[in-house]
Input
Amino acid sequence: MAHQISQLVRNGLYREVLALYSQLHSASVPASFLPKNFAFPFLPKACASLKALSQAQMLHAHIIRTGFQFQMHTATALTNVYMKLKLVEDATKMFDEIRKPTIDLCNAVISGFAQNGFCKEALNMFQLISCRRIRPDSVTIASGLSGSSDAEQGVQLHCLAIKIGVETDIYAATSLLTDRKSVV
Output
């Protein structure tokens, strides 16, 4: 089942994946055929692509009932869908419930804040990950640059990219080249 769900999402058949999930969830399907934690991260992506808020909330409720809300890939996908649907407060609540966030989850929050115009919060999150001793990656740098508000912050992020060795990675390099705030 997870393979079928992931394949539908990879092919951009978002309506079909949500219809399949809904059909399985509402039918009297044996538990062994229902999506498990490795299928859940694909479903929020379909919700985000379709801007399907009610489906995302129903999915979230189902994930909580099944106990997978703290599974890292699922938590990251839910946080990401809430950010993409401009539900920043819901995304922040998801993040706050995770005791040991990964860099992927932090990147989803930093990027989501920046994309929703919360640049100060994006940079605060960037600082929080260094306090929690989470190693940033090239996506963190790119997300941080999109949330930076001035050249000084851009230069600091550029220096950090060099320090951690990701300045030539595609995400960081593209952001460093295209973000005018990082140019002195």
